[in-house]
Amino acid sequence: MIGDAVICPYCRTRCSADQLLMSCGPLCASAPPFPAKTLRRNRCPHGRVPLARRVCPACGRAVPREYAEAPGRAIVVVGEREAGKSTWISAAVRQFETGEAALAGLSLHLLGESSRNRYADLRTPTTEPMLMSIRSVSAKPAVLALYELPEDDCPPDIMATAAGVVRVIDPMWLPGVRTLFGLEPRPTRPAPWAHHVPTALTVSKLDLIRDMFTHGSPLRRPGLQDRGHVESDSLDVHHEVEAWLARWGGIDVPRDHRCFALSAADGQRVAEPLLWLLSRLRATRT
Amino acid sequence: MGALAVVGFVVLAPFALVAFVVAFAASTAIGVATAVGSPTRLEPVAHRAGEDPAHRLYLAGPAFQDVWRLSGAAVLATYHRLVALPDEDLPDSMFARMWRRRSIRNLDGPLVLPPAGLAGGYALGFLTVTLLIAFVTALHAVLAGTVVLAVRATACGLRWFEIITLTLRGITTECGTCEQRARPAFTCACGRVHHNLVPGAQGVFRRTCLCGHRLPALLLNGKHSLPASCGRCHSPLPPLAQSVPAVHLPVVGGTTEGRSAFLHAVLSPRQPAPVHRILLGEKNSRRLVHLYDTAGDTFEHAAFLGLAGGVILVVDPFPGPGSTDPKLTLDRVTESLTELRGTAIPLAVVITRTDALPGTGDRSMTIRRWLLDHGRVDLVNTAQNHFTRVHYFVAADDPWAPVHWLLGAFVTR
Amino acid sequence: MTFAEESYVDDVLVPVRTGWSPHRNYFRVYRLPPHPRQAEVDAALTDLPARWGTLELRLHAVACERLHACHSTAVAVLGDPAARTRHREFVEQEHQALVEVVRHRLHGAPAMTRDDVAAVVRVAGGRWSTPDVVAALDAAGAVVREPVPLPRIPRPKRWPTLREHLADLPHDSLWEYLSRTAELRGADTTPAEVETRRQRLRVSRDRAADAERAVLALVRLWAATPGGLSAALAHDLLAALAAATVCGYRAVRELATPQRCAATLSTDPDAVAYAVWCAREEAAWAETYFEAVDAHRLPAALDVLESRPLPESWARVRDGLRADLDRLRASLTQAREAEDADPEDAAARYLAIGRELTDPAVDEGLRRCPAAAPPAVSATVDGAAVVVDWQPSPSTAGNITYRVCRGSTVLSEKATAPLVDLEAPVGLPLTYTVTAARDGAPGGATSSEPVAVLPEVTDLRLVTEPGVVFGQWRLPPGALRAVVRRTGSDSEVPVHENGFTDRDVEPWTAYTYRVLVEYAALRSHGIDIPVVCLGEPDVVTDLLAVAAGDVVDLTWTPPRGDEVEIRLLTSPEAAPAGVVRLDQAAVAGPVVATSRCGRVRVPAADLAGGRTLVPVTVSGPVATIGTPVTVDISSVHVTGLSAVRLGPQVQLSWHWPAWAREVLVVWRHGGPLADPADPAAHRWRVTRTAYLSRGTRLNAAEPGSHWFGVCVVGDGQLGPLATVESPCPVQLRYRLHGRARALAVEVECDADLPDVVVLGKEALRPLAPDDGVVLATVPGGQRAGRAEFTVPAEWRGPVHLRAFALDDSMWVCHPDPRDLVVR
Predict the structure, then answer these.
(1) With contacts defined as CB-CB under 8 Å, which chain C residues touch B375?
(2) Chain A interface, mutation test: which of C696, C764, C799, C820, most A Cβ atoms within 10 Å?
(3) Domain residue limits at B402
(4) pLDDT attached to residue C98
(5) Which of B261, C209, C461, C532 has the smallest C-beta neighbourhood within 10 Å, fewest atoms?
(6) Is the pLDDT of residue B41 over 60?
(7) Which residues of chain A does B331 touch, with a Cβ-Cβ cutoff of 8 Å?
(8) Would you say A237 and A218 are in contact if contact means Cβ atoms under 8 Å apart?
(9) Would you say residue A274 has pLDDT above 60?
(10) C533 with C467: CB under 8 angstroms?
(11) Which residue of chain B comes nearest to A109, CA vs CA?
(12) pLDDT score, position C292
């Protein structure tokens, strides 16, 4: 709780929650910031109410209290260029606002103005995280820091602190799919890092290849997200996509993984990778 | 030689006895006079710097000190009167007068004896009186000390009694301007501000302001009728702040027009102000409700959120181009609330401008269903996932309903 | 002594014949040396007379006679030694005198021309003969020699200026300047070198530099033509030499340096010097002659030649000149005669003569034969300019040019047809005259008809309000005022400075106004402009607005008025009634369309959600507001309805029309939908926001065909129904029972089963009927089937099992995936 390690989502330095700095209120004229542990009965050293803002001692950026207390976990979204990472992230957030995840009683909140601005402009490549908390009525809130990184340029400090990975795969770049469409094969690059955290292998742009699957395939069905994470349906998708990925080739599969397939354009199964990661993170914590 | 001493003693003794008697009488008279005439002759017990502008209660401290001062003064007076050495600045003591009257210094031989005897007598008398004064002082001190202790204890006890009573009744003095709990300061009719008007060294049940007016020090005594102001920012506190629990309800969301329309309906036409205070309820369940009209998009500096006991969210279901999305407003409010005190408070969602809703069944659920139907499922989920209790209202139905519900929720906690 | 007869003829007989007395030199006559012996004398005295009678010499009868006559005297003189000596001294004196004369005449020259010798003989008048002169020349050390003909170098252009500029330079002559200056190379100077030198001179500013620059300019001019510079240098040399002749031959010879001569004239400076020397007297008058010839003043040139004795070559020139002059005079006479008959021919002759001869008669003759006038001149007004055009003059001889005048103002001296006069004064009658001139001499002239530039008013506008018509214009410069007439009325409409106001009009009547401009002397043609006077606008009461798709069709009967504006009614209470000002009427709301013809189509997007429209009839500055109307959306329907099957569900999507906020979705299984109230169908209301946020998905899992329909809910009624069908494929379900690796499969289907196979694969799920090992087959034909099988023990788990129907149209519903995996 208080003593838990907090990893600043902006500079990735570790500190504990009571080392975060707070500032005095407007009545204490220009006093230096003080660490949270010197709060006495929620008052600053001068005895007044401090500003409701905690900042990282290393980089000085505001760390939301929810993130510090939860504590927040880093989820890294990787994939080649134009694989659909930004599209997926915005579709996934929209699912929680108005889609089926919302029907399941889940609510997603972007923490801080910088996260809201980042969500408004996902196209710009940056290593700024998007902080969000996912709440439901019964469970504790899950706080995530989502980083969107290109596959060939992952800062190692972010990778080192990641608690989960979503790897977005564009099916049009897999050798098997390319031969089906009559396209020249692309040289595939191996992933430059080893996954030691739960990885959601996600095939995006499902609407382009949906006709490949028979009627009985789970990839032809919409998801059951209005019931949150349903394990049987998730396994169905996992087995199916795993078999297809093996058939298409081009992907080396990490140890701790689960496969997903979605179509951000149609809104089909969009939130599933995120929900699975949440359930895995909750399982490891409790 | 012995005979000479005896003769000398015999000659001296009457002088010494006379001197002793005179000195004793004089010093007793002086001591008694000093003790009796003290309030008018010694300076008044003014308040020390940093204390409230009221006279200090005599029996709460100065009485005890006065004992020492009196005895000291008496001893000093006696000394000066009897045996002080000649000094140009001071009036002559008896010994000094004697010393000056004739050139005693010129005397020698046996002529020294009578003045020496007188001087000895003076000194002896002074010492005796001093001892007597000390004895009386000790008695006096014990008496005074007991009285002072008793007074002090009563004051302390009364102070604690007041604090406990207030705490039990849930009355916390929160200043709306500096948005925190503040110690109230009371203003005398003469204009002087008393920051610490509680039973203490300046009075147990009442105290005397410097202007002479007597102010009650206890709420029971009528302190609540004095004009109160915030101890920090000196902005006035509502008159019932001391006797009625306060509830702080921020009103967020919607457009400025929407919010003020809602507040209009609730408060009847009033100037737009950041805080409105109204008294609701009757008798023991009276509450002083502070409604904060929070404009703007950020709540970082809204320190009153730390005092909030509930939130009213105004939702405009068909927002125009310039207004903020209600979910975004709610997100920002919950963020600020989380930073300050957490979101374990009730939330009242008030919808403005709806079409006619079917009127059957649970009104709140109907409105919730209406919101879901109109695509505001994110708002509903956010509300229910953050706040302990959520209830939905329509502004057109009954503008007082959200406040009443929040008060009820607040009280039953 | 041998007797040479030819020489005797030349030495003695010819001079005797031409007047020389033999007494003057008996020695020559008798061929005796100056100191003869007596014997020789005697021999000669006897011999010669015999000779005089020979055949060859006898021809010269006169001379021989005279010789015979003098013989006796000769004998007397020659026989006597003293007389002989005296004669010899006499001859010697004469010889010396002649030598002096010859020397004097030579003036240092090395030779004399024959003409010069003959001139000496002629001037001496018989005292000396040609042999005497020759002998004297010989004694003076000279010879008789003819000069080399010098090329006639015409004077280079601007020659006098060179002399002036050279005066400022330290050089005496162009040759010296060109040779001595650093960058120049004498006679081979190229224009590039001249340019280089000129660049060098740029920085200097004194008189010498200015002069040098001028000289360089001339040099460049001459060097531009090949050989021009050497011609200039040759002329320079010749002029210098000619100027030096006054100082004697030596000066001339000194000046003629070998290089200079070689570069310009010839390689022999002696010949050049001698030639110049011989031509010295000739130079002055030759210059005059050449100038006169260049100026075609042939009579003057002839005078120069005739006024002095000429050498042979010059005499030929003179004769030729005389002949030319006669010829020209003859053609002058011919031309004069031709004047009456054919003036053109005469003019042509005069011109031809004038090219060779400068004579006032030619000019007078040309004056008498002027160029004919152009046959016709036309002037047309084009806007603010006048275009003058004419036909060419019939005269052809010489250079025919035309002069165009406007009245007395000359517009152009050498005009070509057509000429545009942009500065014609406005408002006045103008006449243009074209005069033909031949080689500058004016001839006949023709004038055009009078024209006038009368511009009309500019920016003419008529504005009408109910009961009044306003006109506005801008008067062109030069105009007095404008005049306005209305058709149908005789009187002029009163005008003010820049417009008119006509209140004498009836509303809704058409009028035509003519606006013309009055100038000082004339009036312009005028501009006709029609207008319909406005009256009070009529109210539109029958506006109909029907929504169709994405547009709204509006129709009404066009009222009397200027135009009708359709406004979106936003503030109904603010709209005033009756005829009001335009800005008051604008309070009703913004304009979405305007029309004059009674119908208009407005895109629904322009109405921004509003549904109430009001027609406003506008008439000038006033308007009247008609009856508002609500857009009728009863026939609005959704478009683009499509159904996509997603497993057991069908997702419907369609395009929402404007104003539609809620639709009714109707569906049924098994048959098409008739209307929304079909009892066998299910109904569901979907709001627009719910559709946009969640979409519309319906469960349609029963096999067979499903029909879906959507209609718009608005204004309490339902719109037309749009429908779509989506069939549901036949479903095939199966389950796996059993434990560990001994399993059984049970299959059931809604229709007859096809063949069903169960595949097994290690580690991955089989994806197709050929992607794995067939572990069981359930034959088709019935509604249900069953088969048992075992998973081979050697397969390492997890083993994925999956059933496939060998019929692609079937929908296989698989059980829980956890049941399909065997560890």
Answers:
(1) 687, 689-690, 692-694
(2) C764
(3) 246-412
(4) 86
(5) C461
(6) no
(7) 109-110
(8) yes
(9) yes
(10) yes
(11) B331
(12) 81
Same domain, B353 and B257: yes
In a domain, residue B156? The reply is yes
Mutate: best of C687, C692, C713, partner B, most B CBs <10 A:
C687
- The third-level CATH classification (topology) of the domain covering C377-452 is Immunoglobulin-like (2.60.40)
Nearest chain C residue to A222 by CA distance is C646
| Binding partners of C (≥3 Cβ pairs within 8 A) | A, B
pLDDT value at residue C1: 41
CB pairs under 8 A between A and C: 59
Tell whether B197 and B56 lie within a shared domain.
no
Size of interface A-B (CB pairs under 8 A): 68
The answer to ipTM > 0.85 is: no
A98 contact residues in C (CB cutoff 8 A): 693-694
Both B192 and B153 in one domain: the answer is no
Whether residue B241 is contained in a domain is answered as: no
Mean per-residue pLDDT over chain C, rounded: 83
Same domain for B259 and B359: yes
- CB nearest B377 (choices: A51, A98, A111): A98
C583-621 pLDDT per residue, tens: 888 888 888 888 888 889 988 888 877 788 888 888 878
For C639-728, CATH number out of 2.60.40.10, 3.40.50.1820, 3.40.50.150, 2.30.30.90 equals 2.60.40.10
- DSSP-derived 3-state class of residue A177: helix
Q: Is A109 on the interface with C (CB under 8 A)?
A: no
Highest mean pLDDT among A126-140, B95-109, B226-240, B272-286: A126-140
C79-131 tens-digit pLDDT: 888 888 888 888 888 888 888 888 888 888 888 888 788 888 878 877 888 88
Nearest residue, CB atoms, B331 vs list A49, A65, A109 = A109
CATH number of C731-822: 2.60.40
* Residues of B with Cβ-Cβ distance to A107 under 8 angstroms: 378, 381-382, 384-386
Share of chain C above pLDDT 90, in %: 1
What interhelical angle do C207-224 and C159-167 show, nearest 10? 150
CB-CB neighbors (< 8 A) of B382 in chain A: 107, 109, 135
Domain layout of chain C by residue ranges: 5-144, 159-278, 281-369, 377-452, 458-532, 544-630, 639-728, 731-822
Q: In total, how many domains does chain B have?
A: 3
Q: Which residues of C touch A222 (CB under 8 A)?
A: 646-647, 649, 651, 697
CATH class of the region C458-532 = mainly beta
Q: Does residue B395 share a domain with residue B295?
A: yes
Q: What percent of chain B has pLDDT over 70?
A: 74
Residue C244, burial from CB neighbour count under 10 angstroms (0-12, 13-18, 19+): buried
Say if residue A72's pLDDT is above 60.
yes
**Which CATH superfamily hosts domain A72-285?**
P-loop containing nucleotide triphosphate hydrolases (3.40.50.300)
C692/B contact by beta carbon, under 8 A: yes
Model confidence over C260-304: pLDDT tens digits? 777 667 777 788 788 777 777 666 677 778 878 887 888 888 888
Angle between helices B62-78 and B2-36 (to 10 degrees): 140
- pLDDT (average), residues C348-365: 85
Instruction: Assess whether B31 and B82 both reside in one domain.
Output: yes
| B109-130: pLDDT as tens digits | 666 666 677 777 777 777 887 8
Chain A interface disruption, residue of C642, C645, C646, most A CBs within 10 A? C646
Which chain A residues contact residue B327 at CB under 8 A?
97
C485 close to C492: Cβ distance less than 8 angstroms: yes
Give the residue from C465, C467, C466, C483 showing the smallest Cα distance to C475.
C483
Give me the DSSP letters along C574-608.
Answer: GPPPSEEEHHHHGGG--EEEEESSSEEEEEGGGGT
Q: Are residues B161 and B188 in the same domain?
A: no
- The A residues from 247 to 266 touching C (CB cutoff 8 Å) are 247
Q: What's the alpha-carbon Rg for chain B, to the nearest Å?
A: 38
Q: A193-198: long-range contacts (C-beta < 8 A, 24 or more apart)?
A: A193/A154, A193/A156, A193/A159, A194/A254, A195/A165, A195/A254, A195/A255, A195/A256, A195/A257, A196/A256, A197/A162, A197/A163, A197/A164, A197/A165, A197/A256, A198/A164, A198/A165, A198/A256, A198/A257, A198/A258, A198/A277, A198/A280, A198/A281
Output the pTM of the full model: 0.56
